């Protein structure tokens, strides 16, 4: 068997990092080389992620400095950055400064989702940590680009991934008027590992509520990424909701049809867009979160009536929306089969 390539992870104790570790544990061509954490340096990884016991018992969290030394010495072929937004860019800048190695970076934070760093500052209310690197990263859902036009990649956020899976093929098809009213429901893991009032179990259990309606940062991200991919300037009105479950996203995209478009032409456009994509399935009936949770798959369908349309998308926010989508990019950047390590089925009855 060919030697598995070592991969590094920065920001190692969050849910997304845990999913990266789970995917690396069974990846045929990649393996964990180093995982860094400021707060848990020296702690066994299986102590923080007991679900991985038996898979990575010999691994412990390194310091960022130790990972950087390994990276610069050529001991890592790829690097995932899973730190919070704002923290990723300075770390990546330090790792890439003067770097002449072959390693590739996939950023899962928000820091490299905008080509225009001014847009990042306007949306996130802070200066960009490495504006000189913006052009070195390409941000999109992997299914929407047949090539990787930059050395490194940035994966959109989980909500953004679900929205883009519907919005981009609709814009490319010209079957709608380009205005999208979107409602999405996400599981509590989308808020990260640190407890918050909105993710505290007694508040979220058996509950459902919107947050930041029409004012969520994923809307301008979706507009910017969709415009870069299609050349079309879409109108995106987004209302996110907190769901009473841990994993998964359900998004409903609604709007007006253009010309003589109907449900048949919408489904045909979606099937054409994803016919060669192993992780996106176009179905004829409304998809359910349990169809995909735990896997890297997304399911999508469309319907139309009286000049209006609805497109529904489901995916796992931690896998397809974060770690799995990032792994697709890493596979591609390292010239591996894009499906490698990502074909595990979901548990369904989670």
**What is the fold-level CATH name, i.e. the topology of the largest domain?**
Dihydrodipicolinate Reductase, domain 2
CATH architecture of the largest domain: 2-Layer Sandwich
Q: How large, in whole angstroms, is the Cα Rg? A: 20 Å
**CATH class division of the largest domain:** Alpha Beta
Number of domains: 2
Assembly type: single chain
H/E element sequence: EHEHHEHEHEEHEHEHEEHEEEH
* Biggest β-sheet strands, sense, barrel: 7 strands, mixed
> What is the global morphology?
globular
Rounded mean pLDDT score? 95
Q: Report how far the terminal alpha carbons are from each other.
A: 34 Å
Q: What is the SS-derived class?
A: alpha/beta
CATH superfamily of the largest domain: Dihydrodipicolinate Reductase, domain 2
Q: Uncertain spans, ≥5 residues at pLDDT below 50?
A: none
How would you write the strand order of the largest sheet? Answer: 8-9-7-10-13-12-11
| Number of discrete helical segments | 10
Proportion of beta-strand residues: 15-25%
How many E strands?
13
Describe the protein's architecture and organization.
This protein is α/β, with parallel strands linked by helices. The protein folds into two domains: 5-139, Rossmann fold, CATH 3.40.50.720; 158-316, Dihydrodipicolinate Reductase, domain 2 (2-Layer Sandwich). Helix content is 29%, strand content 21%. The protein has ten helices and 13 strands. The strands form two sheets. The protein has a seven-stranded mixed beta sheet. The chain has a six-stranded parallel beta sheet with strand order 2-1-3-4-6-5, with helices on both faces. The protein starts with a strand and ends in a 17-residue tail after the last helix.
